[in-house]
Amino acid sequence: MQQPYVYAYPQGGGSSVPLPPQAGVIVDPRYCSPQIIDLAIVRKLMKITDGNFVITNVHGNLLFEVKDPLFALHDKRILLDASGAKVMTLKGKMVSMHDRWQVFRGGSTEPGDLLYTVKRSHMLQLKAKLDVFLAHNTEEKRCDFRVKGTWHERSCVVYAGESDTIVAQMHEKHTVQSVFLGKDNFSVTVYPNVDYAFIASLIVILVEVK
Question: Secretion signal: which residues (predicted)?
């Protein structure tokens, strides 16, 4: 059975553009919705526990949370679903000029479970620009997705490949309560048939990359 096409939106508006069917599912088909999905991501600025991200839908239902494993030897984050099951493991390279991160399925860090790799487009950059390479793209000559954002505005856009087709957008939400509680609130719009677990993990990496 043929997978549905992904319909995303070119920069600046206009008609929706169909993407290749394989562009949608990165982690699991259950994380691809035929409708637009809005995620709410809360980042705790003053951590007391080993978790620093909570991701919900617009109704406040928990979708994912991110944990920092205690005593980890590397930059490592675990993305858990609402039941506590491990969805992805995010691992940063300790020595990397491009701030390279690798993302694996479940709790694994084995090469066979690699989902994708992220690295900065350039070593020196004023704005955050990340290139995303899916596991099969071993030569890394052309990226499969791009992330563009700015540190001070805490906003970003995820593009399909090197095109201007947008698959997700993030912006920061400021509330009096969130500032008082020492939290960052992000709102992320994920377009139809785009894997929102994949997008959530990209946002976590964007915040973690220095």
Answer: none
3-state SS class at 58: coil
As a whole number of angstroms, the distance between CA 199 and CA 201 comes to: 5
Written as six digits, the tokens of 86 are: 């491990």
pTM exceeds 0.70, yes or no: yes
Could you say which residues of the chain have pLDDT below 50? 1-7, 10, 12-22, 48-49, 175-182
Tens of pLDDT along 155-173? 789 999 989 999 999 876 6
Q: Which of 57, 66, 111, 108 lies closest to 206, judged by CA?
A: 66
CB 132 within 8 A of CB 121: no
Q: What is the pLDDT of residue 116?
A: 97
Cα–Cα distance for residue pair 98/104, rounded to 1 Å: 19
Domain over 6-115+172-208 is classified CATH 2.40.160.200: yes
- Cβ neighbors of 93 (< 8 A, separation 6 or more) are 74, 75, 99, 100, 101, 102
Which residues in the chain belong to E strands, given as ranges? 6-10, 17-19, 37-44, 51-57, 62-67, 75-81, 86-92, 101-105, 114-120, 128-134, 145-150, 155-160, 165-173, 183-190
